[in-house]
Each structure stands twice: as C-alpha cells, then as structure tokens.
C-alpha cells in the first residue's frame, strides 16, 4: 500500500497550472502553485526533471543548484557514476539529501538522456512514477517520522527542453499519481492492460507511442 503524500505541482505559467488543475482535480492532497522554484515555501523533497548524466546547468535543474549549491550537483554526479556507471537510466530516481533542513531532499529523476524533445513518448509518466517510487522506498526505509518525506514538489516534467505539450504533461503525471494511490493487488494481464491503456490513451485516442 502506498503511503500518503502531499503533492505540490509548480509552474510559473497559468496555462500549465490550469492543465494541472484539470487533470488532478479528482485526486487527493494535491496543491497547484503558480510560482517559480525559488518562491516555494519549505517542503521535504523537490523532484528534478533531469538528464541521465546529472549535468544541472540549465532550466529548473540550474535553479535547484543555485539554491542548494554546486556541491549538490557533484554529489548527484558521483552517485550516477557509482550506481549507474555514469548514465542513470530513464525510469529511475534516487533521493539525495541537500543539507538544508527546510528543504531536506531532492529526487533526481531523468526525463531524457540528453536535452531534446520527448514529445509523443511516455517518458513523463516514467519519470513521475520513478520519483514517486523513490519517495515511497525512502519512506519505508525510515524508522524516524522526522526523516520521512511528506511533501513532494514536482515541476512540469518534460514541459521545457522536452517540448511535451502542457496538457499531455499533466495527463501523464496524473496517471502516475493515480497508479501510486491505487496500486494493483495482484499481477495479471488484465491489470497490465488497464495500466497501459491509462498511460497511452486519452478518451480512446492514442497519445503516446
């Protein structure tokens, strides 16, 4: 069973925030914030829409490094070198402490190997799902409630360099959160088909390849 989270969805543009509100309106514990990363109040974990190599010098990754310091990027890169032999696969995420008690963790979650379009793929879903799993695994490993992640802030995954349309970003992220909230109780092909259709189709129309 998944553990409860407060999910924050942030973006500085009203159009993206409207797409978030539309897709997440039926899902619990979700707040949409029309703001930049730098304006966020204290929270437990921020998810970086990253690349596979931990090079965090552009987009929202750069804002995260400017806020927490260059050493955060170096630690993330060392973990990628140690854990993944220098290239973190898409569909994975790991939690890295920041050293800042008001913003204690980031989740490094690649949406792409290198900057470029991921439109027409399910990589937004994969990165969001991986992030939620990383938070879940972190929380079940912690005995002290004070070190668990309770608030998770997400940017619009894949909306920048990834060129994914805002409504599709919101759709895939909402599907990942719905799957987090309602995991299957057994593994069979019917469950797999339902999940795949939720990821790949919107009202009968195929939206990812």
TrEMBL record:
Residues that span the membrane, as ranges: none
SUPFAM superfamilies: Macro domain-like
Residue span(s) of domain Macro: 17-209
InterPro entries, alphabetized: Macro_dom, Macro_dom-like
Protein name: Phage tail protein
